[in-house]
Structure formats: C-alpha cells, structure tokens
C-alpha cells in the first residue's frame, strides 16, 4: 500500500470533525474509519453526473492494437458504436467501484462553524489534527467543487499510468459547490485482491491489522485502518463540550498521547468566529 502514497500539494495538517464517542474510539483503538460513500449524506458522493469524451478513429485503432481486435481502419458508424460500448462498460465499472470504495473524509480547516455543527455534534464534539506525513493520512487528495458535469477523458483513462488513475479518481473527488465550505480532503481505497493481500501481510503487526484484514476480506462498509500515535498532533474541544466529556478526552491524552496538545474552542465576542485556547493536560 505504500506505493499508493502521494503527499504532493497536501497541507501540513488535516482535521477530522467527530463526536466525542468517535474521538474516543480513534484515540483508544489507534484506528480511523474509511467509510462507504453509500453511507454519506450527499447522494452525489462518488456518484456525480458525468460524461465521457469520445475517442476518435485514430485513438480507437490505437486501443484495438492492445486487444485481440487489432483493426487497421474504422468508419463513422463503427466509431460511434465502439464509443458507446466502451462508455457503457466504464459506467458499469464506476457503478461497481462505488460499492467497493472506502473513503476517509478530512478538512483543511478546524475553524468552520458549520462543520462543528454538522459533524461534531453541534459543537459538543471534537476535532482531531493529523500530520499529513503519516500513513494513511498522506493518501489524501483535495475535493474539486464544481456545479458543472464531470468530464472523463477516455484517452487519458487508457494510458494506464498515474495520469489515468487521476482521471479515474475524478469521480471520487467531485462535489457540488454547495459543499465548498468543508474544504475537504479525502483518502480513498478500493477493496480488491491487492489491498486485501497487502493488509494480510501486516496481520502479524497486531490485532488492529487483523481486524482491518477481516473487514476488507468481508467487504464491510466500515473499515478501520490502524494509525500511528505520531499521526495525531492536537485535539480541539468544542465550545459546548460537556465537562465530563472534556475530562475523558484529557485523561486519554495524558495517558496515551503525551506529545499531543489540547485546545478549547471559544466563541468570539466581536465576530462570528471561533478562537482556540490551550488546555492544560
């Protein structure tokens, strides 16, 4: 799985908005959730409206050379038919992969009042700060917010290189402009034989990897990937967090994460803005 990592253009830190309950699970189990897009609150997630560019005659002939067809010429009727068939097969593939994709959602900001409200249980939850140098966080890529239909370049898809993978990933990285306040980055995996075998090879590293392997093997909707303690750099407590929840988080930090700093969100009295004050652990 290491060959999937690419930290290009990543900010130094990314943030996870979550409930206190989920934060405690992340901190105590040293795992983080990769979820199925079928569980997400956006019906277009990993399922945006899209269209393919057509392959011209020369491109189709070039493509045929890599198959058993190996044709030398093509007319307009065959060109249109071939494009429709190829596009139909890719549409089936995209639909299938939506069922096997698992996604980790993060944000480039820890200050969004809306995000605190929607994903951190009305400001009673927690934001966890992650170091993007750490696996699996460094798999993350930014979301493209655009209300236009997603265009998939067929010629690029057939290159079978990093560029074609990026083209393929457009489906997972496309969201409406309505969501741009999230400043989202996401890491995604596809449950296939390769990743199952890769994780199987790590099962001797501990129970977390065994559980991850079993979940992948069973194609479970929720996959918890192990993360290193060093991946977590700071914890931010919501401005409305309960005192008992605050103490629970502080005790976990004190016992398991002595390197991690903790901050409490404070409502500004002069603007609609959150500020953060360090909390002694």
Main attributes of the structure:
single chain; 281 residues; alpha/beta; five-stranded mixed sheet; 14 strands; elongated
Would you write up a description of this structure?
By secondary structure, the chain is an alpha/beta fold. Helices cover 35% and strands 24% of the residues. The protein has nine helices and 14 strands. It has helices at 20-29, 57-64, 76-100, 113-119, 154-157, 162-173, 193-200, 207-217, 243-256; strands at residues 13-18, 31-35, 50-52, 101-107, 126-131, 141-142, 144-145, 150-152, 174-175, 184-190, 222-226, 232-237, 261-267, 274-279. The protein has a five-stranded mixed beta sheet with strand order 1-5-12-13-14, with helices on both faces. Helix 1 (20-29) runs parallel beside helix 9 (243-256) and helix 7 runs antiparallel to helix 8. The two termini are 36 Å apart.
Quick description:
The protein is an alpha/beta fold and 281 residues long. The protein has helices spanning 20-29, 57-64, 76-100, 113-119, 154-157, 162-173, 193-200, 207-217, 243-256; strands at residues 13-18, 31-35, 50-52, 101-107, 126-131, 141-142, 144-145, 150-152, 174-175, 184-190, 222-226, 232-237, 261-267, 274-279.
């Amino acid at each position: 799985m290491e060959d999937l990592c690419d930290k290009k253009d990543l900010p130094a830190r990314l943030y996870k908005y979550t409930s206190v309950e989920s934060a405690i699970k992340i901190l105590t189990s040293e795992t983080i959730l990769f979820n199925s897009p079928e569980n997400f609150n956006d019906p277009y997630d990993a399922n945006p409206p899209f269209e393919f560019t057509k392959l011209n005659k020369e491109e189709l002939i070039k493509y045929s050379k890599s198959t058993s067809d190996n044709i030398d010429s093509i007319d307009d009727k065959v060109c249109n038919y071939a494009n429709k068939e190829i596009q139909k097969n890719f549409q089936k593939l995209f639909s299938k992969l939506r069922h096997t994709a698992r996604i980790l959602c993060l944000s480039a900001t820890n200050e969004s009042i809306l995000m605190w409200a929607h994903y951190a249980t009305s400001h009673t939850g927690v934001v966890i700060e992650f170091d993007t140098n750490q696996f699996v966080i460094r798999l993350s890529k930014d979301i493209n917010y655009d209300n236009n239909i997603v265009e998939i370049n067929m010629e690029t898809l057939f290159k079978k290189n990093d560029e074609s993978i990026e083209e393929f990933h457009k489906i997972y990285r496309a969201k409406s402009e309505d969501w741009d306040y999230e400043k989202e980055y996401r890491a995604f995996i596809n449950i296939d034989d390769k990743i199952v075998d890769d994780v199987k090879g790590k099962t001797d590293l501990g129970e977390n990897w065994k559980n991850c392997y079993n979940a992948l093997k069973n194609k479970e909707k929720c996959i918890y990937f192990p993360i290193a303690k060093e991946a977590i750099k700071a914890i931010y407590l919501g401005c409305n967090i309960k005192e008992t929840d605050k103490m629970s988080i502080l005790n976990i930090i004190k016992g398991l994460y002595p390197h991690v700093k903790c901050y409490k969100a404070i409502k500004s009295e002069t603007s609609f803005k959150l500020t953060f004050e360090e909390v002694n652990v």
